[in-house]
Amino acid sequence: MVIEHDIESCGSRAVQLSHANHPRHHRQKLEVYNEVLRRIQDSDCEEAHVPGFDDQLWLHFNRLPARYALDVNVERAEDVLAHKRLLKLAEDPASRPAFQVRLVQVYPFGGANYSDSIHSDPSEIEDAQSSLNYSLKQGIHPPPTFGSSSNLEALALQTTKNNIEDGGSAMSVTPYFHRPMHEITFSTVDKPKLLSQLTSILGEMGLNIQEAHAFSTTDGFSLDVFVVEGWPNEETEELKGVLEKEIYKVKEQNMSNQGIHCAANDHYQTRIEQSPPCIQIPTDGADVWELDTNQLKYENKVGSGSFGDLYRGTYCSQDVAIKVLKPERISTDMLKEFAQEVYIMRKIRHKNVVQFIGACTRPPNLCIVTGK
């Protein structure tokens, strides 16, 4: 079934209000849904022949935010099915977090600018472009599920440039990006600090996150997709095994933390006295993100949670959102999570993720500042 604007499916009623407020996004979601459905049906996938599959697929798109449909690569319709299955697995507490790992190929440029950025010789440009077209048709490895950001393309481009400087040619290096990259997708119950916990797991494994996409469903689940590099080879089974062990360690630690939570609260004042004068955030020396608190101006509070408050404000005359940790809730574990959140946010640059401005890491004025 191809959904048109005047057809009411079992999941269409839920988007009528959003349709009125954002008609363009609603139309684009329908277009992506129809294209993904067509590709799945054309692939003769067994799941596509199950009665009601088209409605179930629409419900999948409708339970996720509009940007999921806007960002997903429609040529990878099978990835949408994988996300649907992972979200289903996450409904079982014993399967959480559900995850999958796959190898992906990131091409080192977008469009003709690549050739111009490396060579000025027309014949070499033509060779490079022909090689690219051949590479895309051959599909050495599938691309990431979501359209690659400039971060990934720049990384791939720099690697290709380095290969050329080492004596390679455009013809010999264009078809592949030789550093293995993997896409890891998680699904579990959505909760505060989930993104920080997942990035911490990947960091413990020595993986460097190059891109992240985080989605929350309307019924309380999450779908988080990471493109990472740093695994020494292209196989995925060993990576899956190591990831399972790290997840098991985190589960055990969480159970232990629940058992000592009450006792830990009794020692709050001692923890505060032992807190370092400045939270240590991992750095690669490539950026500066510690903010001058004298330039940070607070306005009205717009939200409050268990561990912090959200304010509207300005930093150097720029409108910002200020997330402030509540001093009375600070603990050693929270300081670690704060450091991890700052670390990952300063590395992510994507149109669908709020811009990271900086942070204050000196207690008791711990806060993260983002664009509005």
SSE blueprint and pairings:
Elements: H1 16-21, H2 23-42, H3 53-63, H4 66-71, H5 77-89, E1 98-104, H6 113-118, H7 122-138, H8 150-165, H9 170-173, E2 181-189, H10 194-204, E3 208-216, E4 221-229, H11 237-259, H12 261-266, H13 268-274, E5 296-304, E6 308-315, E7 318-325, H14 332-345, E8 356-360, E9 367-371
Antiparallel strand pairs: 1-2, 2-4, 3-4, 5-6, 6-7, 7-9, 8-9
Helix pairs in contact: 10-14
Write structural notes for this entry.
The protein has 372 residues and is of the alpha+beta class. It has 3 domains: 1-71; 79-259, ACT domain (Alpha-Beta Plaits, 2-Layer Sandwich); 275-371, Phosphorylase Kinase, domain 1 (2-Layer Sandwich). 43% of the residues lie in helices and 19% in strands. The chain is built from 14 helices and 9 strands. The chain has helices at 16-21, 23-42, 53-63, 66-71, 77-89, 113-118, 122-138, 150-165, 170-173, 194-204, 237-259, 261-266, 268-274, 332-345, and strands at residues 98-104, 181-189, 208-216, 221-229, 296-304, 308-315, 318-325, 356-360, 367-371. A 5-stranded antiparallel beta sheet has the order 5-6-7-9-8, with no helix packed on it. Strands 1-2-4-3 form a 4-stranded antiparallel beta sheet. Strand 6 (308-315) and strand 7 form a beta hairpin. Helix 10 (194-204) crosses helix 14 (332-345). The protein is globular, with a radius of gyration of 23 Å. Mean pLDDT is 75; it is low at 1-20, 109-120, 134-138, 168-178 and 260-275.
